[in-house]
Structure formats: C-alpha cells, structure tokens
Amino acid sequence: MKNVLFVVSLFLTTLVFAQDKITISGTVIQDGKKLPNVSVEVLETNQGTITDLDGNFKLDVLPGNYNLKFTYGNAKTVSVEAFEDVYLMVDLSNVQEQLGEVFLSSIKVDADSPITYSNLTKEEIEERNLGQDIPVLMNYLPSVVTTTDAGNGVGYTGIRVRGSDATRTNVTINGIPYNDSESQGSFWVNLGDFASSVENIQLQRGVGTSTNGAGAFGASLNIQTDEYQKEASAEIANSFGSYNTRKHTAKFSTGLINNHFEFSGRGSLIKSDGYIDRAESDLKSYFVQGNYIADNTLIKAIMFSGKERTYQAWYGIDGDQLEEDRTYNPAGVYTDEAGNELFYDNQTDNYQQDHYQLLWNQRLDNNWSTNLAFHYTRGRGYYEEFQEDATLEEYGMQNFTANGEEVTTSDLVNRSWLDNHFYGTVFSVNYKNDKLDAVFGGGWNKYDGDHFGDVIYTRFAQNNEPYEPYYFNNAKKTDFNLYGKATFAISEKLMAFGDLQIRTINYEAEGPTQEVSNFPIDDSFTFFNPKGGLTYQINNQNQLYASVAVAHREPSRSDYEDAFENGEEAPSEEQLLDYELGYRLKKEKFQLNTNLYYMNYENQLVLTGEIDEEGAQIRKNSGNSYRLGLEIDAVYNISEKFTVRPNIALSQNKNRDFKSNFNGELQNFGDTDISFSPSVVAGNIFTYKPLENLSLNLLSKYVGEQYMSNIESETSKLDAYFVNDFNVQYTLKTSQLFSEIVFTGLVNNIFSEEYVSNGYYFSYDDDFTNPGTVTTIEGTGYYPQATRNFLLGVTLKF
Fold it and tell me: What is the pTM of this model?
C-alpha cells in the first residue's frame, strides 16, 4: 500500500490542465562573443536549460515575475516581467563572482569539473528547516544515510556517505575546517539551527578536490554561510511538533549601509524531549557577521556559537527491548536500596563551542584574486554519569574500612571534560582567464586540547579535593597542507583537471585517560595526494567526465586509544585510490547525473560494529578493501507544476580475505561485506505546485539491509527500511506589516514505519560454559527511529 501513493502522484500529473505559456528567450554573450553552455535557471520554479552553441536559450513559463540566474563560472541574476514573450540579451563580460561565494571558490566545484557532487540550495533547506540537524536535511541526496540518537533528528545526528562514516567526511564552513581534530567527527549538535544561517551546501562524493582540514575518505561537505543582503530585513520563525519539539529563531540584516557595510545576525533556541525516553535536547545558538564590501574587496567578520545540553541516548537497546519497548533508554539507570529501578536525572552531555572567522577576499584585476582567512574555535564541556558500585581505584580514590570490612566500591557521579582550542589560517591565490582556472592554496591549523575527569559526588567514599582530576591528558595536533590545482581548456570541448596536495600532520599526547594509565603518542605523517581528470563536452546537453584521485588519512584519537587499551599495535594510516567515471545530461525539462566509482583501500579503518563508553564507533585496519558503485540522480520537470527528483546508489563494499578471531581461533572469512554499507540506497522527491505560492513534497528514502559486523554475521544484520515524509509550504504575500508569511508543515515517517537506522555489534569468547572449548558469544544494540511525527512552523518576514 505504501507504493500506491507514488502511483497516484504520477497519475495526478496527467490531470493538470495546461495553461497558456509565454516564452523567455535570448542570447548570452561575453566580450562580444556568443557564449555556449551557460546554465540558465528560473529561481522561482527550478526550471532550467543551457545555451546552445550560438549562445541562445529558450524557456516556456507561465505569466509572472521571475529571476533568471545565468551561470558560467561566475553568475548573474536578471529580473524579468514575463506577461508576454520576452527576448533578452545577457552580457557576462564583466560579471564577477558573487561576493560571498568567493571564499569557497578554491574548494567548490562546478559543472565543468570531473568531480561527483550534489548541491543543496538555501531554498531547498528552507522547505524543511524546522529544527532538525543538517545531516537530516541532507538525507535525500544520493548515497546518503542518516541516523539520530534521540530518534527524531534533534540532538546527536550522524551521516554516512557511500557507507563511510562521518569521520571520513571532510567538513568546512566558509573554507575553514570543522571536523574535530582528534576524533575527526563533526558534531552537528554543537551547531543548533545552523541551517538557518546557511546559503548553500555542496556534497562532493569520493575523494573530491583538495580542501582544508582532514582528508576526505567518503565525501567532502562544503558549507557557505549567509551572503550579505542589499536591503534591510528581519524575520521571526517558530515551529512546534511531536515530542514537545520547538524551535524559535530571530534573524536580521541591516542591508548595505553607505553601500559598503552590512551587519546581520541570528539567535536560536531548540528544545525537544526526543522520541527515545529522556533523550531531551536544549540547544542555544547565535550567528553574527559584519561585512565590508567594495568594488574589489570583501571582508567578513563572523562569530557563531552553539551551547548544547542533551540527555545521553548513545547506549542503544538490545533486541528484546526493541520488541518490548523501543523507546527505552538505559542511560542513568540504577537501583535504590529497595530494588526499584530509577534513572539519574542529570546523565547529560554539556558542551559549548564558539567560532570566530575573519575572511578577506581581494580581487587584484580581472584575472587575479586572493583569499585569506584566520579562525579560532574554543570548545569546552563535559558529560556527566552516575556510576553504580564503581571501583574507587579507577577514580583516583582510596579504599576504606567500614564496620571492619574493606570497601572498594561506591556509587558516584563523575564528569569527563574536554577543554580545547583550535586556530589557524587558510589561504589561496586564484588566476583565471578564458582557458585556465588555477588555484594555489593551503592552510596551517593547530589543536590544543585537555582531557580530564573529576568526581563530583560519592555515596560512601571520601571524595578528593574539589575539582581535582583523577586523570589528565593533553593532546596537540598540527595540520599543514599546500595544494595547487587547475582546470585547463584543451579545446572547446575538452577540459583537463589537475590537483596536487601535500599534507603533514604531527600528533602528540601525554598522560592518563579514563581507560588507560598512560596515553603517550608522538606520531607524524606526510601525505602526497595527487588528483586528475578530464571533462568532455559532447554537445550543449551531454557531458562525460573521468577522474582518479589519491587520498591518505591518519588514525583518530580513539583508534590509538582502543589499541592501547587492548594491548595492540598502533593503527596504521589509510590510503585510498578513487576512480570516478560520469555522465551528465542537461535538457530543459530533464537533467541526469550518473557515475560509476571504484574506491580501492589499503588498511582502511573499518567500523568493527563495537562502540566505546561514549557511544563512538570503534575502528580497526582491515587490510585491503574496496567500494564499487553506480550512482544515478535526475530531475524531471513533468510539467510546470510537477517535478520528480529520484536517485539510487547500487554498490558492492567488500573486505578482501578478512580475518578475525572467532570461536577461539583466527579465521579467514574471505571476502566479506564492509560493515554499515548497504548495497542499495535510494531516494525520491515528488514536488507538486498547484499554486505559485504552494508547494507539496513527498520525500521517500530506501536503505537496504546491512551488516554491523565485518564477518557477515546474521546476528549483526540491520533490516532494510523504507520511509516517507510529507512536506508542505505555503507563502502568503502581503504588503502590510510583513513582506511574507511562510507556513511550513512536515510529517515524518507518514506510514509509521518501525525501523532502525543504526546500531552496534559485539562479541566475546566464552570458555566457561563448555570447559575445554571456546565459543564466541554475539550481541547487538539498536537505535530505533521515530514513528510518525510532525513539525509545524510559521515564519514572519519583514
């Protein structure tokens, strides 16, 4: 029955009566020459085309006012009153890059690049921006799988691309590295409502192009924050929904002052009780920026911060609990003296992160431009836990005697702290002419972080001095990279891309951690990452591209720590050789992107399925492995009112000759599926616009079955799931107090599917049940996702 809605939606399009249309046509020129292959997009309808070999274009639209965006490297927007046929002559001769996008020009790619990518625009973000985190808003992009600890998209969320976990996705904000230097992960919970300050997002799948920060092993995610606005504006947005979820946002912009200055900002509050028991979130954030704009200069000073308090929901539940009570949360559980099950009410994660960015772009002439940025991030916080019958020695306390007996345990409450600083600079120089677009850039970044813990309460034992840490470990990491890359037009139809990067890392740590008595690290790496590719423009509608790229990646802190804890050798660096072969088709009503990839790894750090005490996934080197896949995504404008945007990713993800201990001996399991790597991931968005200001969207996501282990254990299998969301947005134009009132509704999981998007797997050897034999005992944990739930919002724009 769930598929019926798709059939009905397709059938309804045949009932849409055609209306009289008008034609917008024209010619695009540059330096007096007619310009082919220029992208022409109607921003209000997402309708688009490209100019032919004579620079001509034609679009059929309903009568109305439109903004047409012409993109050829740089972009120009033209407003059109289209109530009768219109002919335009568009000159791109002196068009410069839109100020604000220049900071990402060195790491973003466009349609001429042999890189596989997807874009998420501000308008697409706003359609569903009701408080859920950025990974959830990206859920319908190709090869993307998302999950949330609390089950409803608020709080701790994660993303996987092509089966690679979030630590393998390089994230930058305005070209500044965002991944945590040690864990290599990106913690979106520290960026509450950041989507409300985002101009656009580009997801590059595979190795992508050289960028700043950690190496990309699955994808690169480049986020551009709000551009400056010419006119003053303000808006207030409020949303409410299931599980007592609510978001409150206020934004403003002064518009250009004296044609040179603009100041803008946002303040947000998000709260939710979560789908999982007690998995509440309390997220406070702000974003403030000041811009200086001149003819050839753009300077941005940006500050943004997020403060989060979330009840822990990273423990998961076992299979029996999943059947009996799928919202059960074991975090903070303990028993009182009468044997009653209780929960500690402050089993929480508390963290604040403040970001400061100073960005300067200078255009020297029509060919040369420079980017220079300085950044500083301050992070500090802790998670608090109730420990029942904790061993005193492990928390730096002495055993004691009571009633003549030695007492070695006590109930207690401890806090595990992080206190860190991250700072540095990134820079680039760009030269561009008719045939060559070259960039030289790099970055230097330094991380300095303290890890320590203290005990704030004991039931029986004598506590230490206030705030005296029972462990203290300091870590320092320096990351430096230089790259040079260029796109060169060999002919009118053939373009070559080359990219060379050298990256050096030094990582040092000293002192005990919560798990090991000493954690000494002094490791250095030097990586050379070459990339190259070709793009062939068959004609103005068809394009082929091919690329090959090398990437390396260093182990994370937890990789080292897990090895120390288990007495194993330090983990090895990883290497990836990524081959991409793609085809792009762009017509007026139909666009198609398809690519074949082969990612060959040496010493890939694959997820074992296990998690550590903080809920983080444990990884081990797996020897040789690969990911082979086919990705297809399309946009089909069936009519002026109906658009379909399907995508599918089919893949094979394999460890070669995978070896693991099982039943007391080392076994070769042969070629096995890589953990958390479904072979089928598909999505679709049906959009129906019965009115100019009303949009209805049916969003669907299918994720095939996957193993949580690397030995293809049936115990570790996660079932496939198919989830559908329904989104509606209505914009009321008014000339009174508000310029617009936007009403938004979102029903997630409309068929109330009971599904699990993430989990963990563990095993241990049992040699007591049957003496003389060793049997491996397997277990699993699951993170259930919310059944049917809703969010409703209204935005008042001034």
Answer: 0.87
